[in-house]
Design goal:
This protein is of the alpha+beta class. Helix content is 48%, strand content 19%. A 6-stranded mixed beta sheet has the order 3-10-9-8-4-5, with helices on both faces. The protein has a two-stranded antiparallel sheet with strand order 1-2. A two-stranded antiparallel sheet has the order 6-7.
């Protein structure tokens, strides 16, 4: 019941209007007095709410002594709500003032739910291409949204590991056999949408998710170049012979560790 009331409130009904719609749908036609008694709310408030619902054609009013009220069919109710919301959204889109956004801003977002919602928004808004670099654990969280993007014709490029290890180009903080710097412990991820929007974030069990969102072209190009480097290094590694693997190590550690030694 509470979840249904909340959903009705989310589409514009007051709490009392939501309760009345549910009550009338469950019980059928009844008087305002009966509805007030069922809900334990004053008759004046109930009659006022019923009149608003009648005015909006969500409730039918049979005038008489006493008058009776009945909810319209649920299918018609949802269709009417959807049509009115679509009309409102079209009006907002056509008439909302806008100005050219500053691309130099970097927006910091924190919190698991807020970060997830923002990622969902940018994926849903992508038109041509999405590039994703994250662990498989985090990839599961966006898999459905990315699948929907592919279904509408967006090209999706994945770079997802099956464990917490990464190639040095994408995990350059991985010192000493995969140990990360304790100040930045967590699962890092990056996303690029339409070569215009860059999202860089981190998730961990110890603290809330964090996300840096920007449309700055320099940052977008930087994230894209790192993704390309990852692909090149991955392809090179796949072509190494066993002797070369022994010489360079599984992630070319002998090449990059001297430059990334924490003690330097």
């Amino acid at each position: 019941m509470d979840s249904l009331i909340q959903q009705l409130r989310d589409v514009g009904f007051t709490e009392l209007e939501s309760k009345l719609l549910i009550l009338l749908s469950e019980q059928g036609s009844m008087t305002g007095y009966e509805a007030a008694k069922k809900l334990g709310i004053s008759r004046s408030n109930v009659y006022a709410a019923l009149q608003r619902l009648v005015d909006q054609n969500f409730v039918l009013h049979a005038v008489g002594e006493p008058s009776h009220y009945a909810a319209i069919d649920p299918a018609l109710l949802t269709k009417t709500i959807a049509e009115r919301m679509q009309a409102s959204l079209r009006y907002v889109e056509e008439h909302m003032p806008s100005h050219k956004q500053e691309l130099s801003f970097f927006y910091s977002i924190e919190g698991d739910k807020v970060v997830a919602e923002k990622i969902g928004q940018v994926i849903a808004a992508a038109e041509t291409e999405i590039i994703v670099d994250m662990t498989s654990r985090d990839g599961m969280l966006v898999q459905q949204a990315l699948q929907q993007a592919e279904n509408r014709g967006v090209k999706v490029l994945w770079s997802i590991s099956s464990n917490e290890e990464q190639l040095p180009a994408s995990g350059f903080l991985a010192f000493h056999e995969g140990q990360v710097d304790k100040h930045l412990a967590g699962r890092r991820f990056t996303m690029i949408m339409d070569r215009k929007i860059a999202c860089i974030g981190m998730r961990s069990a110890a603290e809330e998710a964090k996300l840096l969102y920007t449309e700055h072209p320099v940052m977008t190009e930087y994230v894209l170049s790192r993704f390309i480097q990852d692909i090149i290094l991955f392809e090179l590694e796949q072509q190494l012979t066993e002797d070369q693997r022994q010489q360079f190590g599984p992630y070319f550690s002998r090449l990059w560790e001297p430059y990334l030694n924490k003690e330097m």
